[in-house]
Design goal:
227 residues; alpha/beta; five-stranded parallel beta sheet; three-stranded antiparallel beta sheet
Amino acid sequence: MLYNPLFQNRETAGEELAQAIRSQLNKQQVESGLKPIPIVYALPRGGLPVALPVARLLDCPLKIEVAKKISHPQNEELAIGAVTASGSVIWADNRMFRFKFYSREKRQASLNAAIECAKSLEAQLNPACSQVTVEKATIILVDDGIATGMTIAAAATALRKLNPSQIWLCTPVAPQSLIPWLHKWGEQVIALAAPESFLSVSNFYVEFPQIETQEALEYLQQQSVKK
């Protein structure tokens, strides 16, 4: 199946997403009479080029929440769940994924491997993040695209423990069928596009290179220096 790209790259998608988020924040302020206090969280590494234009437009800190997929013990490419560096985990619905049998020990090994991967990336990126108070803030959780939703759901679960006022799940593109499920994890879901046909996030970008850790650090440093 052929896809028509919707975005040139992550940065231009982030600029467009930033406008949509700001509009919704302004609308909420008018309706409630209260000014939201936004903090942008990116899912690294790919979410950072999208999140930086959002943090710039909202003039707020840019932070990270690392979530990694938990690979099927017999197929590294197949995700059976997602977990954050702090251990917040979301498991896939077995009714949807029809796994072959594997032992509890193998599942635990896959979980442990994902946690260690998340912890390693968090340790590399966290020093570049601003220290902020999250309690009562509106968390704007950003990724470059949502395919299964498991990583962003795991991230939202971890951030909920910080007692924010709200969590918004924001992305340039997500499957239309997934939108109702995403509302379970955030008070707002903002997706610039929600196509019915969805195979891979990369299909919707002209340019979709892998983001290396050093590049991810540079995105964080740009906003932390500014603040």
